[in-house]
Amino acid sequence: MLYPDFSDLLSYKKRKLDKMQPSQRKVSSRAPGNHHSPYRGPGLDFDAVREYVPGDDIRNIDWRVTARTGSPHVKLFQQEKERHTIICVDMNSAMRFGTRNTFKSIQAARCASLLGWRALAHQDRISACFFGDVPGGLQYFACKHTRQALSTVLKMLVQPPIEQHQVSLEAALQHIGRTAHSGSLIYLISDFMDLSANFSNDPSLSRLSKSCEVVFVSINDAADRALAAAGVIGFYGRGSEKVYVNTDSFKGRETYAAEWQASRSILTSTAKRLKIPLIELSTESDIHSDLLLSLKNTARGKK
Q: pTM for the whole thing?
């Protein structure tokens, strides 16, 4: 299968990713939803008790505390607000590669579908940002919370490319930085293969990591890390330049492995420094079970 199957992506709405989330950050949206807000008010989760002041809802009076202290006290609850979830997918040509089971691009589409249906189940507003071989090099879908809107987003993932562009993750981050609301949950789905040396200091990423919850979802193939002997192979690098590697040469394979390790070191050090969760998947992963397990482990690590 060269491209994701639309019916396959639609089927993921029946899959459950339960209520585990990688984010513990409270949201500040004004619209009601299923996530804790930094503000107190009407809600379901008890937060605290304070003395009654004129204007408080008498239905919230805590009669036990009132009887114990001799003065009226009211219960405060944690407000629940909707979250803005942004799913950013790398659609550069390097993602249409795979030597095990399927292509990275197909796994990325499945991952985006699961995260999209999960966000809808939580009544989140969803935006999507696709960069690479899409019209104009970058496509942004404004935030909505309907199945029809998500289906439109998923249709873009299954379309064969009609334009070719080489767009960096940094360029996508700049656009997201202009559209993301404070407290947004942002998934960056890519192979993170060709990061610049300055990626760790990218100002857009730094700002987003402070105001939003960013999650790296890295999808790679076994051949990304170590090439098998298969003759001369051409690769596209930064700026669309094409680099040829003689994979029959031990030195050529060694040089390629060193480049992979350098890029991976940039990614892991950036994630560690900015405290960004890094979820690592592969073309051999069962996206549903492996993504679920990773989200659970990430949520536990943030508690």
A: 0.76
